[in-house]
Structure formats: C-alpha cells, structure tokens
Known about the structure:
This protein has about 450 residues and is mainly α. The protein has a single domain, classed as Growth Hormone, Chain: A (Up-down Bundle), CATH 1.20.1250.20. The protein is about 75% helix and about 0% strand. α2 packs antiparallel against α5 and α3 crosses α8 (about 215-225). It is globular, with a radius of gyration of 21 Å. The chain starts with a helix and ends in a 36-residue tail after the last helix.
Amino acid sequence: MKAADSNRAGSAPGLWRDTDFRRLWVGQTASQFGAQATQVILPLIAVVSLDAGSGRLGALRAVEQAPILLLSLFAGAWVDRRRARSVMVLADCGRALALGAIPAAYLFGLLGLPVLLVVALLVGVLSVFFDVAYQASLVRLVDRERLLQGNSALEGSRSAAQIGGPALGGALVSLFSGPVAVVTGAFFFALSSVSIWRIRGREQLPERGDGPVRVLRQIQEGLRFVTGNSSLRAVGAASALFQFWFAALMTVYLLYLPRGLHLSGTAIGLALAAMGPGAVVGSLLAARLPGRFGYGRVLVYSAFVADGVMLCVPALQGSAAVTLPVLVGVNLLFGTFGQLVNVTMMAVRQAVTPVRIQGRVVATINFAGMGLTPVGSLLGGFLAGHWGLRTSLLVTAVALSLSPLFMAFSPLARLGRHLPYEQEPGPPSVCRHQTGDARTVSEP
C-alpha cells in the first residue's frame, strides 16, 4: 500500500474528511429513515385505517419482501456492471414517488388494500436495488483496512434511523393519519437521492471483455463463489434461519402490540425505536470487540443474547405503563447485540470477497438470507390467525434461536481476531480510493 494510503488508514478521522463518504453516509442515513418510517406506517395503515386482519397483514409484508427472492440475484449482476451512485439515486427517487401515490389515492377516495399492495411491491423492488448498490458502493469508496470503520458508521446511521424512523412514523399515524404520515418516508427518500447524487468520485465500470457479458453467467459466478467459501455458506445459512423466523415474528409482533397489549401508534413507535439506541451501541462495539475477542466468539454469543431476549415479549400483559418500559428494554438489548452480529457478519463477508464481485455476493447472500422472508411473513399471519397472538409469538421467538445454534457449529464460530482478506487479482477496477490490495445482510 502507498504511504498516503497507510497514513489515511492509521488516522481515525481520515474517513470523515472524505467528502464523498460523508455524502454517502448522509444519503444512506436519510434513506434508512425513510425505510424505517415506512416499515411502521404501511402496516399501521393496514391495521388501523383499513382494519386488516392477520392474513392480510401477512400478505402485505410478503408482497414487500417478495422482490428479495425474485430479484436479488439479478440485481447483484446488474449493479456490478453499473455505477452504484446512479442506481441508488434512481431507486430512492422511485420510492419517493411510489409512497406519494398513497396520499393521492386517499384524496380521491381510492385508498384500500390493493393500493397498499402495489406501493409495497414497488418499494420492495426498488429497495432490493438500493440495498445491493449501497453495500457494494462502500468498497469502491474506502480502503479494505477501513471497511470495519465504514460499516460501523453506516450501520450507526441505520441505528439512528431505527430510533427516529419508527417513533416518528408511529406518532404521525397516531396524531394525523397514515396517508399524511407516509409523506415523511417520501421526503427522506428524496433527500437521500439528492445527497448521493452529489458524490463526485467517478466510478470505473468493470471490464466487459470481448463479447457481451451474460447476466446468467455473472449470477452463476456469484453463486459459485458463495457456495465454494465455507464462511460465506455459513453466513447465508445463518441469515436464512434468522430472517425467516424474524419475518414470522414481526408479523405477529405488529398485531400483538396494538391488539394484544392495546398500545397506541405513538407507543408502538417508541417501542420499536428503542432498537435504535441499542444498535448505536452495537455499531460502536463492533469496531472493537471482534479484534479483541475474535470474530467467531462475538458472532455466536451476541446472536444468542439478541434472539434469546425476544422470549420475554410473549410473557407481557397488563397496562402500557408496565409493558412499554419492558418492551423498550427488550428492544434495546435486541438492537445492541443484533447490530453487533450484523456489522461483524458484513465485515466477514466483505473481507473474503474480491471487489469485482461484491455486488453479486451481496445479492447472493441477500437471496439466501432473505429470500424466504415472504413465506415467513405469511406463516406469521397464518399462525396468528389459528394459534392466537401470544402462542404464535412464543413459537416464533423460540425458533429464532436456531440461527445462533447453527452458527455455534459452523466455521464462523472458529474465526479468530484476524480475517483472511481476499486479495484482488489483476488491476483494480474501481474509483480513486482503490489501491492494489483493496478489496452486507439487513439483519444478522
């Protein structure tokens, strides 16, 4: 590595002096605020304004998550051949316009579940492309040695969004109405697109070879790389177990809070927002603990704590004065240790992946980890309708422990304090921050 790069890697404030990274951080933060607010507002519109039952709420969540299964692999190959900045800008502009259709439909008396389903589908499709692009863009902006710091900063902003997004969305639904509250999400997506559009570093597109690159061949390359690497296989499998049961749990959870515990929209927003402060702490810990105790030990123990604490939720009953503080504490712990797992897993994935296929590996892991979330959401709605809210919540909370149990017996548990970085063959194919040896799952 060049001396200048070494100096930058050794100076902690160096990453924040980078104007392009700051613009990416601001844009990603705004986008996460929009996403977090929307994830609360759309279900609350369905439950509170449209009186949707468990089956319809499960269908709404499944429709929003279905593009992960259908489009992730294609999105990875597509993003690897294009500038990540352009993909992110177009995706967030599209999400802002899609959400704007809800207040328009309300004004014309057309708002109903079909409109919500269409908007949820559009938002889900565009979210797939944005999430792949922003995770792939980080490796084009910072050096390999700064990935953990960069991930910690971006995940810290996602944590801040988890504080403000749900609380703001729930409060607006409670004070005004869902169609008015959804404008908040549209505003944040628009702000994100403006900030990311201002990134000035020019990305170099990958070499395309002598003939046209076939998307199917690129997808296969990403699949082969993930299945051929024991650490990535374990990341994908652990992610799949967690995301499937977390999707089922959240469908029941969003019904349990207003109907089982009789919480208001504001209280629901505050309860969900409690994950945010914990996630801020988790992001900070992720920059230090893996290097001190080992990546494997941090992953396994943190996952057991994060998933195990959710077992407290089905036991709650009584007034909001009693249940709300407990929910805040549970979500605080879940946010802290869940985020610690998330950031550590992303560092593992990025370390063992060559930069030229980062987009495809992100997409393949997302496909494996989150592809079955629509089925999980439908299962959660089915269980809530047939077994009751409390029993369904207990079953799905217990099933969350399958993910850390798998990790404990996987190659991830054997990772030490240093990761085996993948050396990039050939000349670099990225922008100005890339050096010769330079070199991400929504939930853990």
